Amino acid sequence: MEPIKETLAALDELATEHPEGDDLRASLQDLATRVRELVPDCVGMSIGWRRHGVVLTLVATDEEIGLLDAVQYAMGGPCVEAIEVGECTDVPDIDALDETAWQAFAELSAATAVRSSLTMPLLEGDEVAGTANLYAASRAAFDDQHEALAELLGGWAPGAVANADLSFRTREEAERAPGLLKDSAVLAQATGMLAAHLGVDVDDAESVLRDAALRAGVPVNALAQALVRAVSGGGSGD
Questions:
Q1: Is the same domain home to 38 and 144?
Q2: Could you read off the pLDDT of 30-62 as tens digits, one per residue?
Q3: What confidence category does residue 110 fall into, taking pLDDT thresholds of 50, 70 and 90?
Q4: What is the pTM of this model?
Q5: Which of 101, 110, 153, 218 has a CA between 20 and 30 Å from the CA of residue 13?
Q6: May I ask which residue range the UniProt record assigns to the signal sequence (predicted)?
């Protein structure tokens, strides 16, 4: 598994500002390798920390996997549930999800050939400090691996947080810059769908959309396009 380009850019920024940045990148790569040793069918992984209300995705196989994180932050999914309840959330068969439960997440998962997911909260004491999101290409891929993965991921994450500044403030400012979205029609459609789903006005929906993309480390226009496909039911047909 390799970091997505947005993650590489964020890590490059961190390495410029903090000497620990290069070590963090190598450590993330090693962590991904060890996860794949436990779950060979794992096709995507992200590690996020809650920092000032922001969760940063640091590792994923490609942009589409990163979008699965972003869609959850915007419209709900196992990742959000794990943060809220502080417990592991295993979805052994995404295809079997009720069509009303996490609909956009299920549709986009089908489009990316993801068949199961596992989200683990990362704890500091009794507080949820972040999450680890894992995605696999086969059903029930994470069966019997919860304990081993929890030990691996939970043992790695607190040290990484302690050794590096993960706020990436410069990157946050750049992502929030006006004009980030080139396709205003897609933005309007996506925010309209999100507003209806959340029961908020379009301005608030656009803020949710941008924040979700920032947290997952994916382009806002890519998230908008993915939401339109997923909510319209066209995710599995692309």
A1: yes
A2: 998 999 999 999 999 888 776 545 555 666 666
A3: confident
A4: 0.81
A5: 153
A6: none
